[in-house]
Amino acid sequence: MRACLLVALLFVAVTPAHSETNMTLAQAFAAAWQRQPAAQGLAERERAAQSRRQAADAFTPEPPSIELGTRSDRFNNNRGALEQEVGLVLPLWLPGERGGAQALAEAEGAALKQRAAALRLQFAGEVRQSWWAWQMARNEQDLAAIRVASALKLRGDVARRVAAGDLSRADQHQADGALASAQALAAETEAAAESARFRLLSLIGVPLSETSLQAEPAVPPAVESDALKNHPALLDLENRSLVAQQSLDLARARNRASPEVALSTRRERAVSGDAMDQTWALSLRIPFSSGARNDARLAEANADLIESRSQYEFDQARLAQQLASARSQLLTARNLLNAAETRARLAAENRGFFDKSFRLGETDLPTRLRIELEAFEAERQAGRARINLAQSHSAYRQALGLLPE
To answer: What's the CATH code, domain 2-400?
Structure first.
């Protein structure tokens, strides 16, 4: 019976007694992501990328313009001389500029999506860390409450035996001291749980309800086999490298200002009473190349390309090491849980044995208190091991680039 009671108490230690809504890690992450400035501005950034694609597909690199002009001698000779001119100016794409602008716009659109995915994964790591820290703190709080209840029960047993003359007043003081120690630990764990809850609340932004200890789903074998191939952080760097390459190609094609072709018509007369003469003009303006400005654009684009490629190689090695470390920690967490559960089971059985012998007067109170403390520490270690395993599994999914589920 006592073993069954212990199992039930351990279950309570990781399962809420009063659950309003069973919030999961995935729900907490979804709520937290909606509050992020990057998520709120994502729609406008997508609209900007779409507009850049439309601009790259336009007939001219810049909008056409109209030129209007008039000239007369009204304010000097006033002989009726008049000249009026209307012209349309069309900027022209440089050779290769339009294709480069279209390729750059497409690369920027794809990079925006991958950048959002990388930011989501990075923020998921923060939420996961705060989530499991809160779960660990709540587990400590629940175990401390169980210890207080056990200490209260033991103090009652000691008080009855002291009243019957079986134990001394010193034994009563020891039982009272054990209860005070348990109450102090409960107060500490309650403060730690509240602190962890507020840290998580600052990310989620919605009232936190009671939750149950629920690990994330297992990783599909296909995902593990292609560990870093589809990692959002690396895909983001690949797209940034592509954007830098397209920017460099566009800078090479855009080596001067856009040439312009102008079509204009002019109506004029020499003096008042003469007929208006009309002429037409077609002109082409070709700007000279600016070597210094073009070199600066090329150097900046080339620097971005070098940095993005170097960062990709650096992050690829770093993420591979993180994945190996997360996989090793997950295996260690499983072994620790097996050992902790074995220790908790043995400690629970010992507590039952010594509780019975204490009631029969065969065991003194110091031994009984020592066994109680050992059982509590074993339960505490087992609870930590359970949450540590779930947290290690979550960290492993994070290293693989998977969002909370």
So the answer is: 1.20.1600.10
